Amino acid sequence: MPGNPAFRQIQVAFLEADVHMHRFEKLIEETKGFLDPAEGRRLYDVALEASRLGPFLEIGSYCGKSALYLGSACRENGQVLFSIDHHRGSEEQQPGEAYFDPDLYDDRQKQIDTLPFLRRTLARAGLEDTVVPLVCASAVAAKSWSTPLALVFIDGGHAFETAWLDYTCWSGHIMAGGYLLIHDIFKDPAKGGQAPYDVYKRALATDRYEELEMTGTLGVLRRRSEGDAGAAV
Predict the structure, then answer these.
(1) Tens digits of per-residue pLDDT, 59-96?
(2) Whole-structure pTM value
(3) What is the set of active-site residues?
(4) Would you tell me how many other CB atoms lie within 10 Å of the CB of residue 173?
């Protein structure tokens, strides 16, 4: 068996897979972001299933950590991830705020600029032909959008008005059987802000979504078929 060419090909394939996984895990570790590893793995698992249906859209690219998981799943099935971010940082990432990172502050522009970090991440991961950065506000991109989406991941600004606008702009584009994922859901107010959780609860109240198991602070909802849907958004 060890001398069999087919067996050798299998060995090489497994070795290449191990090397690729090691590189991926190293890139994940080196990429700035707020996804817990367990949340990232769940993101990938859901995305791998959803990518059989159609393209994705995420709101809140930041430096590309979530795009690594979503984009890798898209690449497996020949799909595309549209990744929206104005790249000027959310409310809590500005100077003087809790999540300000001086590495992301451009002294020349006197403002946050995460776009170079995203582009570097996509280049290192070989995802430049899979992930399409859209450098604008979520509502701007939604104005002329008509493509049905298999997955929408909301992880942008955490003020209620911002999170709710992201939901109202994009939830209507999710196809039946597609997924709505919302990050940073804290059911206990003592552990975090309530805006994403409020949006999550409002989405469930429409009866358009089936609630699946959460992973950490990652909420996972699956869009029902039109015949199963209840109230409008």
Answers:
(1) 999 999 999 999 999 999 999 999 999 999 988 889 99
(2) 0.88
(3) 158
(4) 15
